[in-house]
Specification:
Two copies of one chain form a homodimer.
Chain A (H helix, E strand, L loop, with lengths): L15 H9 L3 E14 L2 E8 L9 E2 L1 E4 L6 H13 L6 E7 L10 E11 L13 E4 L10 H18 L13 H12 L5 H11 L2 E7 L9 E5 L1 H7 L9
Chain A binds a DNA duplex (30 and 30 nucleotides) through α5.
DNA sequence: TTTAATTGTGTAAAATATACACAAAGTAAA
DNA sequence: TTTACTTTGTGTATATTTTACACAATTAAA
């Protein structure tokens, strides 16, 4: 039996039969899922963290993770962990990247798969608050336990890209929202300012907003119109993007 | 000990200490890497496959995979497997996605991480040809072993998107190439035709091509100029893309 | 009724993408 | 050596998209 750590040595090509027997015995690795759960509240992008209870990382925050069960699909594990840690289900969840450095976890070899979720803070009250679970401003997230800072950074970057190509953001808003709500969301996630008129023009041109003929309530200024996102239309018109651009 | 397969049940929140002990004992899963190695030759996009030697899949082709060693970084495993199966190293390799259905592999529970590579068929002769390793037209890839068809499809889609946002394609060309070479490459990978003049205009406008003042040789028509890709300039000018577009 | 805040709207200018045709350079064959 | 063939190299007019920017209308609060 050979294992190599640096990828420079070679070993004889092994048949899948040989692999098969290994699968039964040794050569297995602990596998976890870590969830990076983004939310939006008070015009700020937030993320859910818990307090690490490993001595080594006692004062540090960490992502929501757990081991994947032997008989559990990877995606199912992500949904389970989200539910288990927060009490929430029926939310959008997407795999982002796997992290597999040998020494990334102090408890031994653990390869982890990162999943991202976007939830509406106001409309999804957390039902479980163990381990000091709560929302943190993404700006204030530094120095997480393990390699969780790296995982978080990767997920944040992923989110910024993703939200420009897919209408993820609507998951962070109430069903009915104003265009200002929508713009605040994009500005918070992309950490940028946009021109209000051009932003409107862009979204109206996409033609995925349904004017529900209601107005904002209780705002100390002229109220804006409320809209819903037309998911059905989006699914049908989804664009096949071709254009070299780097 | 509880494991759940459907993500609907919950179990008590477990401390990382508890996890730590589990890592030492049971609850480990075989982890593999599968490499989807794309190449380009005769103006066609190719992919490397080997013959599966599992009885159940005896007549089928499969991706280049192997288990990840206990003490081997995930990325290192991908590079090792590529080298082991093909004799090649020093090529671009990127993680794409992990696949973790419980029943995806007949030999038992194996979660696999897919990596993509792009290599120049002409300039990287394969040094190992075990298991009938050879290049297949991507068009002819159907009905792979295990869930490899699904993995391949995901990687092919990933590649099509990736190549429009990053100058990956230059890995598939010789160091010196003509604009026709470049266009053939994009047309093959994106499976589309483009206007020759506009294609040129676009690439010249990017300003990442270095005119090396040489011409094509041995072509039965007016020879084209040869170029190199300016990786340094690209790295510096790399664009921070902001633009909602879906 | 006045002030403060924010919504709703349009247009001109700039940048980018698209469609399209002909002369020039080489090889191959008569 | 001429002619036919193939492919390169180039420019312009048009359409589309993006950007920058200002003022009147609506509401709540003072």
């Amino acid at each position: 039996m050979t294992t190599v750590a640096n990828g420079k040595m070679t070993k004889p090509v092994k048949s899948l039969m040989a692999i098969q027997s290994e699968v039964q015995s040794s050569n297995r690795i602990a596998l976890s899922v870590d969830c990076v759960i983004f939310g939006f509240d008070e015009n700020k992008l937030k993320v859910l963290l818990i307090r690490s209870d490993l001595k080594k990382y006692q004062s540090k925050w960490s992502l929501l993770g757990d081991l994947v069960g032997q008989h559990e699909d990877l995606d199912a594990a992500a949904y389970r962990i989200l539910k288990q840690r927060t009490g929430l289900d029926d939310v959008y969840l997407e795999q982002v990247h796997s992290f597999g450095s040998v020494s990334r976890h102090p408890a031994g070899r653990v390869v982890t798969v990162a999943y991202c979720s976007l939830i509406n803070v106001r409309h999804h009250k957390l039902k479980i608050l163990d381990n000091e679970l709560h929302w943190h401003d993404v700006q204030s997230v530094t120095d997480l336990a393990f390699d969780h800072q790296q995982i978080f950074n990767a997920c944040y970057q992923w989110l910024q890209k993703r939200i420009q190509e897919h209408p993820l953001g609507f998951n962070l808003l109430p069903k009915k929202f104003s265009l200002r709500d929508l713009q605040n969301l994009y500005e918070a996630i992309l950490d940028t300012k946009m021109d209000r008129r051009n932003f409107r023009k862009k979204f109206f041109a996409m033609d995925f907003l349904i004017d529900i003929d209601e107005m904002e309530q209780d705002v100390p200024h002229r109220p804006g119109k409320l809209y819903k996102f037309n998911y059905d239309k989006y699914e049908k018109k989804k664009k096949k993007w071709v254009g070299i651009d780097f």
